[in-house]
Amino acid sequence: MTPGEVLWTPPADARERTRLGDFLRFVQETHGLTFDDYESAWRWSVSDIPAFWRSIWDYFQIASDTEPRQVVTEAVLPGARWFPGTRINYAEHVLRTPGIADDEPVVLAYSQSREPITLTAAQLREQVRRVRAGLQRLGVGTGHRVAAYAPNIPETYVLMLAATSLGAVFSSCAPEFGTRSVVDRWQQIEPTVLFAVDGYRYGNKAVPRSDEVAQIRQALPSLTHVVWLSYLDPDAPPPPGAITWADLAAPTEEPLAFDRVPFDHPLYVLYSSGTTGLPKPIVHGHGGILLEHLKTLALQSDLGPLPEAAQAAGFTRPADRFFWFSTTGWMMWNLLVSGPAVGSAIVLFDGNPAYPDLGALWRLAEESGMTYFGTSAPFLLTCRKSGLVPREIADLSRLRGVGSTGAPLPTEGFKYVYEAVSSTVQLHSISGGTDVCTAFVGAAPLVPVRAGEISCRYLGAAVEAFDPTGKPVVGELGELVITAPMPSMPVGFWNDPDGSRYREAYFDVYPGVWRHGDWITITEYGSCVITGRSDATLNRGGVRLGTSEFYSVVEGLPEVVDSLVVHLEDPEGGPGELLLFVVLAEGVTLDDALRSRIATVLRTALSPRHVPDEIHQVRAVPRTLSAKKLEVPVKRILTGTPVEKAAARGALANPESLTEFENLAAARARR
Questions:
Q1: Which residue in 176, 395, 583, 668 is a FRET match for 634, CA 20 to 30 A apart?
Q2: Is the pLDDT of residue 274 over 60?
């Protein structure tokens, strides 16, 4: 398989049977516009911004107190305000569940801590109704913050919908987050209500969290109420002063209602990964998230019921069940739980994805009837490296889509999906960020899938690759930038009244243009290749290389399980040092022969400039809780930054892994 090879082609009748095709027919009827292909539709979507986003509003029949008088105040960055004067509610649209009958499943939840739970659309609304009333009894109203230290379970989802139905602001941290990381996040937003669990199971390991919750409570004087769920031990009583989840969701006669709020009213606060310094508290609004998620899930991912015209023409397909492996600390959870808004049931999972083995999630796909399986690129590559063939251990015939994000997926990852998972599935390799709570680039049902490439730029996302002079380039490596506003760009940062932190985060390099911090190459036919973070680039002798290309080569060796590479620049302008760290397979040690093999394969596949100056064996590569490698923090540690300033341990999946890099930095300093 070669890079760029076409692996999946849209069927000839894709326009007739997909939601994107139906939307384009709607645009033709309402605007008189006809598009020959996806690329021309994309160009319209980023050049006539008011017309495109008003079409999204109209197509999805957004419920508002008033008809929009204006789509966007001014299409500039930063500062654009969307749909001024309108009042909507995100939860109201999620609970419309179009195409899902009251007695049909809308949430299928699986856990290693308890038995599976299924909620129908009617049951979900009933739970939200009760919890909304419970929050009101606790004094929660518009603008109050409600925090959840809880896993990916129905209660967390219900709480989010209930809080946002009131116009309250939601924020969640997965219970694997360390106390310091949680406090660093929530001290900034001062929540009044905390929902917490006593612990959870990760595979066969019990992880109690009562002590951590006590420390969090003590560090947050703003809290007035704690809601407790005995999740690890159902018989354990709540701590003093807490009420139970059953108390919060007690029977009530209060009707289900939705407090409509201004389009840009805060919906939830997400946080940057927080690997260094205090995490950025990113405020997302009701309207921006709603429009963006409707577009992404229905049009780009083709989730939800078939359009009426397709049904009338005799097309059929199973009801969608959408899954993405995520914790409540990653923005993919926020995207996942918008699924019912487009008429797709969602599959929740809490636990170890590799327990009892790497086949667990693939077997869950069969058990739950998944039609879309979302995961991370590292998970797919780990399955590949282990030799697992998912289609041999599970019936994956219902799958229409497989999603991959969190890191670039190399060509061999594409090959693995089409050979080991399904030859007919559409692979959605996507890339975006917490900052916009969506993807900028990904797939579309009218666009082919090519090996090693992200299929297209998303509608409404004005993605370009900028050269060092700030000019767009095609076919060349450049900075990923967004040149026009998107509704889901942050409302702002919490406690940033003049917007200075927000502007500094995205607009300090190219005024009026969002710089995302990734390297991207855009091909002449509109696909994209992301090659890593631009602040972790390997630049040796003027040859710039994204780290993902480096990892693809090194981790292709059977002896190498994982790797991390950093380039330490020479302040006097020399070539600097290229350091490679490898995690080796069990029983393998780093000797001169293996060092030579690694050097040879890098010299052949990349360039002589990218042969490491030093190769070190480590027990683990430090990763965030969403599986991203900590290239920049490791680089800072190796150049003398104390570990506590270089990386927030509580935000890491394996904080103990930093010790080896700290020791190496000390040894280098003694040279």
A1: 176
A2: no
